[in-house]
Design a protein that fits this description.
The complex is a heterodimer of chains A (286) and B (268). Chain A has 286 residues and is mainly α. Chain A contains 12 helices and no strands. Chain A folds into 2 domains: 61 residues, no CATH class; 197 residues, Orthogonal Bundle (MetI-like fold). Chain A is 75% helix and 0% strand. Chain B has a 6-stranded mixed β-sheet with strand order 6-7-8-3-9-10, sandwiched between helices. Chain B has a 4-stranded antiparallel β-sheet with strand order 2-1-4-5, with helices on one face. The chains are: A mainly alpha (286), B alpha/beta (268).
Chain lengths: 286, 268
């Protein structure tokens, strides 16, 4: 959604000059979003560097941007198979998050579909779904570790648990929000229930499911990291706890930068997929 | 022009067997508290074009939905040919308000939809590309509905209703959302399609001029509970054109009568 804003901002000069006489209360000057964000980032780093330098903040509280960059670089500028680099732990974390997301999201879509199709199943499952959602799920993590051990299983399980709900509720809502005229159309064609689901309801729910996926991707990553905090052989959670153990705060920051970057990247991938698949977007309804 | 208009009408109106037969049809909503249709009796001949007009909420859409097998009814008899209506039928194509195309399918996929659901391609199905060509959409088959104008969308909606080659076309205010000029053009197109296919059409409209332009017979319905107030035969030769129809001697009287019937109920 931020993309149109940027293009609008880029086209700013032409918009500004042309309709000046047409709009009596002058429209506020469109701002260049990218420029503002860039300036903000520069200001943040400058303020950070200056604060650390002139306020004598100890490096075990807040390292300087340069120290974080150094830690980051030392983890990146290594062979991908180096156990001290970021690549192996990152791979482990992403892999478990992805498997958890696939399992939790798949189950969410399946149960969301069943609940949308059947009032009985909805009545049966909805209370549990909400109970599960009301629970701070991270608090279940120690229990999950007992059940699944310190290996990949507990990471996948918690990632799946966290990504399950947003997909469940969004697919349910999306499947139920079909325009009744479209259902009438399928009924008038004697379409089967599954045909109606596949051809009308599921595409109709796609924007909702993508919104859920957008959340679920972040939750899956979160769940995996939390599970890794509780005990794991490898993963970005392990990188963080190990750096913390030796008060390598710059190392903790560097790991957070990596995770943040991947969060943004995954969000971008979901958005890109959505724009490709849900190409009709807001134009579908006139 | 004048000569054709004066031609003997009887010759243009061959006696066709009744295709749709409605007897003592009653329908209520809200557990019987709201009476939607009270005692509808109506015959529609094979190949006939019937327009139904009536005030908002008079149950004309309900009548169409019952014929389409989308709604059930409380009592009476509804027959398509020799079969009692008990659900959606392959003999019926429905054209919905505002085209009702699926935005995630291309125009061609939308038109072909009836061929891939409800038990696959029926015998005698029409060719999708031929229909698109007839409707002037030949070059738009690969486009998505949002890339089309409202009139083109509704033409695609009509193609979709025709693709199974049904005997009956039910149209629920198909052109209500279009601007006046597009609407006139669509009426002309629909007349052409109807004349070339010989379908039986029941079209619901709010527009008196549209009803007279298209119909062999205009059915005027009363306000709720809906019943048939009057049936008016439109003996204006075809093909009719938007320019000539209003100058036909029958036109003013028909329009006046329908208007009087509608406004006589305190509603337009």
């Amino acid at each position: 959604m931020s993309k149109p804003d940027i293009t609008l901002a880029v086209a700013d000069p032409t918009i500004e000059s042309a309709p000046a006489s047409e709009s009596p209360p002058r429209a506020p000057r469109p701002v260049n979003g990218t420029l503002i964000a860039g300036l903000g980032l520069v200001a943040l780093f400058a303020g950070w560097a200056l604060a650390v330098r002139f306020l004598d903040v100890p490096s075990y509280i807040l390292p300087s941007p340069a120290a974080v960059w150094k830690a980051l670089w030392s983890g990146l500028a290594v062979s991908p198979s180096d156990p001290l680099g970021y690549y192996l732990p990152l791979w482990g974390t992403l892999k478990n998050a992805a498997i958890g997301l696939a399992a939790g999201g798949g189950l969410g879509l399946l149960l969301g579909s069943l609940m949308a199709e059947s009032r009985t199943i909805e009545k049966l499952l909805m209370p549990y779904a909400f109970a599960l959602q009301s629970l701070p799920k991270v608090a279940i993590a120690p229990l999950v570790v007992i059940w699944f051990g310190f290996g990949d299983g507990s990471k996948i399980a918690i990632a799946g648990l966290l990504s399950f709900f947003p997909i469940l509720i969004n697919s349910f809502t999306g499947l139920r929000s079909v325009d009744p005229e479209k259902i009438d159309l399928m009924r008038s064609l004697s379409a089967s229930r599954f045909e109606t689901y596949r051809i009308v309801k599921l595409p109709n729910a796609a924007p909702y499911i993508f919104a859920g996926l957008d959340m679920a991707v972040v939750y899956a990553l979160l769940g995996t990291i939390v599970a890794e905090f509780l005990g794991a052989q490898q993963g970005m959670g392990v990188v963080i706890t190990q750096a913390q153990a030796v008060t390598d705060v710059a190392g903790v920051f560097a790991a957070l930068v990596i995770l943040g970057a991947f969060g943004i990247l995954l969000h971008g991938i979901v958005r890109g997929l959505e724009q490709r698949i849900v190409h009709w977007g807001n134009r579908g309804r006139k | 022009m004048r000569a054709t208009q004066m031609a003997p009408i009887a010759g243009l109106r061959p006696v066709a067997p009744t295709l749709i037969q409605i007897r003592n049809l009653k329908k209520t909503y809200a557990a019987g508290r709201v009476q939607a249709l009270s005692n509808i009796n109506l015959d529609i001949a094979d190949g006939e074009f019937v327009c139904v007009v009536g005030p908002s909420g008079c149950g004309k859409s309900t009548l169409l939905r019952i014929l389409a097998g989308l709604d059930d009814y409380d009592s009476g008899q509804v027959m398509l040919g020799t079969k009692t209506v008990s659900g959606p039928s392959r003999d019926v194509g429905v054209v919905f308000q505002q085209a009702n195309l699926l935005p995630w399918l291309t125009v061609r996929e939308n038109v072909a939809l009836p061929l891939r659901v409800g038990g696959g391609r029926p015998d005698g199905a029409d060719d999708v590309d031929r229909l698109l060509e007839v409707a002037g959409l030949k070059d738009f088959g690969g486009r998505y509905p949002y890339e089309l104008s409202g009139g083109m969308q509704q033409r695609a909606g009509i193609c979709r209703a025709l693709v199974r080659n049904p005997r009956i076309l039910l149209m629920d205010e198909p052109f209500g959302a279009l601007d006046a000029l597009t609407r006139e053009r669509m009426n002309l197109e629909l007349q052409r399609i109807w004349q070339s296919t010989g379908k039986t059409v029941m079209l619901i409209t709010h527009s008196i001029s549209e009803a007279i332009f298209l119909a062999d017979r205009v059915i005027v319905m009363s306000a709720r509970p809906g019943r048939v107030l009057r049936e008016l035969t439109v003996d204006i030769p075809r093909p009719r054109s938007n320019d000539t129809i209003i100058s036909h001697p029958d036109y003013p009287a028909l329009a006046k009568e329908i208007r009087a019937l509608l406004t006589g109920q305190g509603e337009e």
